[in-house]
Input
Amino acid sequence: MKIKRNVLGLSITTIVFVGLLLAQSPSYIGAKACGLCHKTKSQGRQLPLWEESAHALSRANLRSENAKRMVEDAERNPKCLSCHAPLFEKGPVGEEGVTCEVCHGPGSVYKSIRFMNNPQEAAKNGLILFKDAEAVKSLCLRCHVNAHGFPFDFETAWEKIRHNRPGK
Ligand code: HEC
Ligand code: HEC
Ligand code: HEC
Ligand code: HEC
Output
């Protein structure tokens, strides 16, 4: 009897553990879903700023004439995709190119207000935090170093895409 109870206890522990893992594994929701709360002038216009940036075109550009001159079938070339659309294996969000969640992490859990107002808790649920400018720069360099010959100046580039809240 005792053994049976232990087995039962163990399997309940396993179920709870697996359940927690599933519940906490965040997935990708796409730029429009972030934009629900990051769109207006008072919020900092993050969605429109991104839509106007080259990052929003990076996947589409793999279908351009320039891309075709560089390599056959760039759109399906994992090497090109690794910079131009790193989430290409994650469903529709892959179409968005260098989208919000490439830099900020998968948002299905942290997007809720209770996490968004508490960055430390959000970070435990998928949000990537940057501790200083160096951390931001090394994010950029992941793709902007050796970007088939294009030079990169961090300060200038960051000014082009920064999307802070007003007053920050
Ligand atoms: C339901 C509304 C809502 C959604 C959806 C949402 N956010 Fe937020 N987010 C907020 C609020 C509120 C804050 C707190 C700061 C503020 O007032 O803008 C915040 C803060 C942030 C911050 C700053 C964290 C810090 O360091 O203080 C980042 C980065 C962020 N959101 C990214 C995202 C991304 C990426 C998505 C989509 C995956 C997203 N948010 C979806 C409401 C939302
Ligand atoms: C290491 C990351 C990286 C890889 C790998 C990469 N790219 Fe790029 N690509 C970039 C960056 C960064 C830019 C933008 C540079 C800029 O404008 O400053 C860019 C720009 C482009 C552009 C637009 C500029 C133009 O000349 O029209 C095209 C098209 C392009 N890449 C195609 C490709 C193709 C095709 C591949 C695969 C053979 C590829 N890229 C691989 C990072 C990368
Ligand atoms: C996952 C890869 C990736 C990361 C990370 C990334 N970029 Fe890019 N970036 C690209 C690609 C690819 C392009 C080219 C898009 C195109 O034109 O097709 C690009 C284009 C740009 C451009 C437009 C080129 C120009 O000079 O007008 C700027 C500016 C830029 N990135 C800034 C940044 C900054 C700043 C960071 C860090 C905060 C960053 N990027 C992080 C991949 C990336
Ligand atoms: C190329 C990478 C990249 C992309 C794409 C990107 N962000 Fe960011 N975002 C950053 C970095 C880096 C910061 C600055 C973090 C810091 O200063 O601590 C930031 C800051 C923010 C902040 C906080 C602003 C503040 O003043 O505190 C919000 C909110 C945010 N991003 C939302 C978004 C949303 C929504 C999208 C897509 C529509 C997006 N970001 C796309 C890299 C990116």
